[in-house]
Every structure is written in C-alpha cells, then in structure tokens.
Specification:
It is a single chain. Helix content is 68%, strand content 0%. The chain has 129 residues and is mainly alpha-helical. The protein is elongated. The chain starts with 6 loop residues before the first helix and ends in a 9-residue tail after the last helix.
C-alpha cells in the first residue's frame, strides 16, 4: 500500500505530486462526505417546496445530461475495477477498490438532487431555473 502523504514526493521536490492513495481517498472522500452529510437537509428542502414544474430549457437539459455522462463514466470505472479484480486477479488496495464506487454513488445522489430540483423549483448553484 502506498503512503498517504510522502514528504519526498510532495514537498522536497521541484515537481510536487500527491500520492495515488491521497488522490483517491482525501480528494474523493471529503467532497463526497460533505454532500452526503447535507443530503438529508436537501431532501427536506425539495420535499417541502411549494412551487412545482420548472419549464425545461437547454440549461436544465445540459446539466442533467452532463451529470448522467459523468455517472456513466463512474459506472464504467466501477465495472473495470471489478473486471480487474475478478478476471485478472489483480490485487488492489482498498482505496483503489472503494474510490470508483464512492464517486458513482455521489454522482447518482447529485443527479437525484438535480432532477428533484427541476420538479420543485429549487435553486441550484445560485441560479433560479
């Protein structure tokens, strides 16, 4: 297993770089944990919203399509991880196995919030849709 944060790789060099373990844990898990932590509050906001049915426009559709494409790539990453582990019997560290699944679940949650906001007129990212 690689070191989470190696001083020789990140600080004592002319070209600093984070380790693979750091990139696939801290840089994925912290934003995902933030979204999942506040997900119940967002669900309550969507459920209690009085306004309904936002008219569909190019902005709404492009937002949904772009997140759906990212979800597709995250799902393909999950399937590729399972393929490498199952077919090629390649040993992977726990963080390498968990990161694609966390990413996929987080983007599915984001897709749910975007779709839920379309039907309940909830503002996302400071824009009124």
């Amino acid at each position: 297993m690689t070191c989470l944060l190696d001083d020789d790789q990140s600080w004592n060099t002319t070209r600093p770089e984070f380790s693979q373990c750091f990139r696939q844990t801290v840089l994925i898990w912290i934003p995902s944990a933030f979204l999942w932590l506040f997900a119940p509050m967002e669900c309550i906001i969507i459920a209690r919203s009085k306004a309904r049915l936002i008219p569909w426009n190019i902005y709404n559709m492009s937002r949904i399509i772009s997140v759906a494409i990212i979800c597709l790539f995250a799902l393909l990453d999950c399937l590729f991880c399972i393929y490498l582990y199952g077919v090629h019997d390649e040993q992977r560290d726990a963080f390498q196995f968990a990161a694609p699944f966390v990413t996929f679940a987080t983007f599915l949650l984001l897709e749910y919030f975007i779709d839920g906001g379309e039907y309940t007129r909830v503002e996302w990212f400071g824009f009124s849709c």
